[in-house]
Each structure stands twice: as structure tokens, then as C-alpha cells.
Design brief:
The structure holds three protein chains of three kinds. By secondary structure, chain A is of the alpha/beta class. In chain A, 32% of the residues lie in helices and 19% in strands. In chain A, strands 3-2-1-4-5-6-7-8 form an eight-stranded mixed beta sheet, sandwiched between helices. Chain A is globular and about 45 Å long. Chain B has one domain. Chain B contains two helices and six strands; from the N terminus they run αββββββα. Chain C is of the alpha/beta class. The chains are: A alpha/beta, B alpha+beta, C alpha/beta. Chains in contact: A-B, A-C. Chains A and C meet through helix 1, helix 7 and helix 8 of A and strand 1, helix 1, strand 2, strand 3 and strand 10 of C.
Amino acid sequence: MMKDQSLRQSFLGPHSEDVFKASKIGFIGLGGGGSHIVQQWAHLGGGNFTIIDFDVIEATNLNRLVGATLEDVKNSELKTSIAKRVIKNINPDADVKVFNKPWQEVSDQLRDCDLIFGCVDSYQARRDLEIFCRRFLTPYIDIGMDVYEMENGYSISGQVIMSIPGSICMHCMQYLREDLLEKEAARYGDAGGKPQVVWPNGILASTAVGLAVQLLNPWHPNPPGSVYLEYDGVTNTINVSPRMEYLAHTQCHHFFNTEGMGDPFYLLRSKK
Amino acid sequence: MVADDMIDEITELFCDEAHVMEEAGITYLYLPDLHMPMGNNPPMQDALLSLNPRDGYPTRLFLSTPIPGKGSNWSIHNILGKSWHTISWNYVEFNGRLADVLANHLKAFA
Amino acid sequence: MKIAFKMTDRFLKIVRTDLNRRHPYAAERVGFIACTVTPLPNEGWIIMANEYHPVADEDYLNDWTVGAMMGPAAIRKALQIAYSSGKSMFHVHMHEHSGRPRFSKVDLSESQKFIPDFWNVQPDIPHGTLLLSHNEVVGMCWVPDQPIIQSVTDITITGSPLLRFWRNA
């Protein structure tokens, strides 16, 4: 018997409540994008959260960090605390594991996730996260946005990418490229105070959540596989990237010797 | 890519074991308990040496623990499922002798 | 204890294709999956399918009392794979129906005869057996230092959609 709060999403099927409750989801980065995703997943009935962010909220985050209050800023509250509060206020029974460290340091906690959302702010972090997800056969959904100054104003753009092991990856999609990683490394990770606003984050987060629901509990016979969606904040559209057209029959070769290999150091120890 | 005699030289000079490992097209040399130059704390730690170009670095040394006061622009990465720390110490080419590569990276911690 | 087993949908398709092949005299086919094994931080394991090794036609015994009976050569080859690769071995076979399959008494008694042998070559990691139906998967796992055979609690087929089979669902 479905709970009242799930009745309006009953079209997702009689087992959807169980799926959302039992699926273990990783949320990496709880800023503008991640905070949206966490809130939506809690509303869906998500029951098993692993939330990771080492940062505290600052005043400049308040324009977009869902669930954050002025009091949180005054208290330099951890972003994970804000996220946990949001989750628990919607679903008190949710199991929320909190890690206030860089995800790279606590990645063992992500090994058995059913899906990981990445809301990080560097290509390198995305690259490392995708490799990690491939290592543990975990689907990865990435979001991000950018604001660019142009001659006559600003352009807002963003992406939602779903990378499923066994299928094309962010390198295949050319979203991750060696030249971009090299340029970023040369800046020593200084992303600066990049412009960020709430509504594109909301659009991207909602799209990401929709992809996740389609993956875990499809309501239509043909859920998408690995996909690269591009957001244009000027025309207010999200479209499948034109690059996907060339990837229809591509087999990913970027994770040979990596996909599904688990912890290679454990294998090394056990071989001794 | 990594001949046995190169590995032997590494294990003679720098640490007791060395293992070739691969991830996403990059070859790494895993060096458990690498002896760091004198004055470093900890004096030994696990390390990874990447042997292919990655992020604009032809080779790069990653350590399991950052070392305060040594190197600059420390960054954290997740490689082979674990966290690793590295500095901005570039342009160490793999010119054929692995021991040279490692020695050149360790200069940053001298 | 959480014992999670994962494989890609492409891998499962390879396994099913092989198990569906007719055998000259055995009623069904069996195979072995070599898997990587990683411990989970709070007890438990994640086991991931890596390579599929069908049992060769000539390595079946001609035994009409059961669907398929492996000969000693089949088990020897599987032990060799475990020894040289350092991987966990999961025996796999299929029942011809839809819905949740159940291990028969014969399935379990036969598995008990050879699965623990894998500890002779790879002692510190779990080994086990998977059973497929047309649309579901279940598994049993022999875990070191555990006196009772464990159910594989979570089976995930990674693809789109993501297929999940929970032991207690």
C-alpha cells in the first residue's frame, strides 16, 4: 500500500516507492546544483543518501543553495548539514550518511552506490569521478553551468550528462578533453568566483533527477542510455548535444582495464 | 612500457616493491613505502608515478599524504579508487630511465 | 551482510547467449564468471563480473539424471583461472522460466561440493553461484569465515534501465 506522499507519483509503478527507498545514491557536491538534487530526491521518497562536501556555506552561496538560510551563513554551517536538514524535514526515516571531506578521500563509501550525482566544479574532479564510477559499474550523472560574457551581454549554458558503464563516456562525448584538463591544471584549480544563479541550477538538477528516475524506475519503455544534454539559458532550451548523433554506434574504449575492476590494491594484497 | 630492469632499479634505490597498474589508458607505477628525501614527514609513504601525459604533465608523482611546507599548489585526486595528493612540479619527461624520472620528482621534496 | 553483485547488461547478454546454446547431450549449459572482489567499508562485499568462461562441450558428463553435470576437467580449468587471475569465481546456470528463480536441492548440494574448493586457490575472497531465469537473477555466496552460505543481497545489471534484484524484495 503506497504512502500518501507517493500517491501522486503512482504512475511510476507499484514498486517505485521501494526502489526510491532502497536505492543507495551518492551526492557529490552540495552547492547550487547538488542542493537542488538532494531536495528533489528526498521529495521522491529517496531513503538512502550518501552526501559528500567539505565546504561551509558563505554569503555568496545564498543566492542559490536550496535549503540554506541567513542563519546558516552566520553560523558558517556545513553544506552537508544543510542538505541533511532538508532531507530529514521531508523524509525523517531516510538514512543519510554524511562526509565532510573531499570525496576523493572517502570514495570507499561510494563503492556500493546504485547511482552517483556529480555536482563538482572542475573537469579533473569530473574525470576522476567518472573513472571511479566505471571502476564500480555505477551510473554517473553530472551537471554544471557556466556564465560567459559576450560582446552584447551574457550567455548561460550548462550540461547534464549521464555516463553508464558499458556505454559511451564523457571522453567519447568530447565533454572531457585533454586540452581542457591541461588548461585547468595550469590554473592550479583556481576556478575563481564564477557566476552562478539558481534557476539554471534548478533546470539542470531537475533534468538530472528525471534521468535518474528513468534509469532506476522507468515509466516509459525506452529510457535513454548514456546521454549528453546541453542547456542554453538564453533560449531556455535543453537539447541532446549534436555530438550524440556521431556516437550512436560508438563503443567506449576509454576504460579498458578499469571498468568493473573494483579496488586494485585489494587484489594486490590478496595476491601476496 | 615498463621493463623489468627499470622496476628492479626502482626497488633497489627507492622502495622494496613496485607494481605496474593501469587506469583509463594511463600507466602508473605503484610504490608502497617510497623513501622520501630526508627531512620529510612521513619519511616513507605510498606513492603513484604516472608514466603517460595527464593534465599537461608528462609524468607526475602522487603521494598518499600531502606534506606541509613542501611543494606548492597541492591538489587532491582519486586514482585507482584511492585518494592521492600532488603538487605542481612539471616537465619531468619519461626519457627512458624510470629511476631518473622518480629522482627528478623527489627533488621537489628535497 | 551486504553482498552486492554487479554486471553490465552487455555481459549478461553474453552469458545468456552462451547458456541458451544447445549442447549435444546435456539438457542445459553452465559456465563460470571470474569476478573482481572489493570489501565494503562496513562489512560486506561488492563483486563484479569480469570475464565469462563457458564450460567446454567436452567437459560435461553424460548424466541424464540432471540438467547438466560438469566433469573434473571443467572444475580444474575454473580453479586454474581463479589461481592465475586472483579473481572470485561464480558458477552460473539458467532455469527456463520467467520470474524469480530458486536454487533446487540438487543445485545447492552440487555447488557445495565444488565452490569451497576455490578457497584452495583463492582463500580470502568469496566465491559463489548465480542462477538466472529469463528475466531475473539470484545468487548464493560462500564467504570466508562465515559458517552459513550467504545470499547475494543485491544484484545489479548496469545498463538502461538499471535492473536491481534485492534479496528481500
